[in-house]
Amino acid sequence: MNRREQRALRAIEKNIKIDDPELAEQLRSFGGGGSARRKWYAGALAVVLLLIGANTGSSVLLLAGLLLVLALGLKWTFQAMH
Question: Which one Pfam family would you cite for this protein (predicted)?
Fold first, then answer.
């Protein structure tokens, strides 16, 4: 989304929070559990790929594991900033 769309979305969120705080909380927490579970699975998969790649000497598996770790780290960093 561009900046104008992000500002519009924040304004909508703010208005919902003012008009109906209960609905705002439900919308904020919607789908949170599945996201955390996917991150955990992705982290476990990254560790498995790294271990198998290191034990077999497979550079493809090592690279896949490293890229997955990097993607998870960037996602975590980006979410922490916002």
Answer: DUF3040
CB-neighbour burial class of residue 14 (10 A; exposed 0-12, middle 13-18, buried 19+): exposed
57-67 per-position pLDDT tens digit: 998 999 998 99
Best CA proximity match to 42, nearest among 59, 62, 64: 64
Quote the number of domains for the chain: 2
Residues 39 and 21 in one domain: no
- 65-76 pLDDT, tens digit each: 899 988 888 887
At residue 45's C-alpha, the angle toward residues 41 and 65, to 5°, is: 135
Q: Which domain holds residue 11?
A: 1-30
Question: Do 40 and 79 belong to one domain?
Answer: yes
Q: Are 24 and 13 spatial neighbours (Cβ–Cβ below 8 Å)?
A: yes
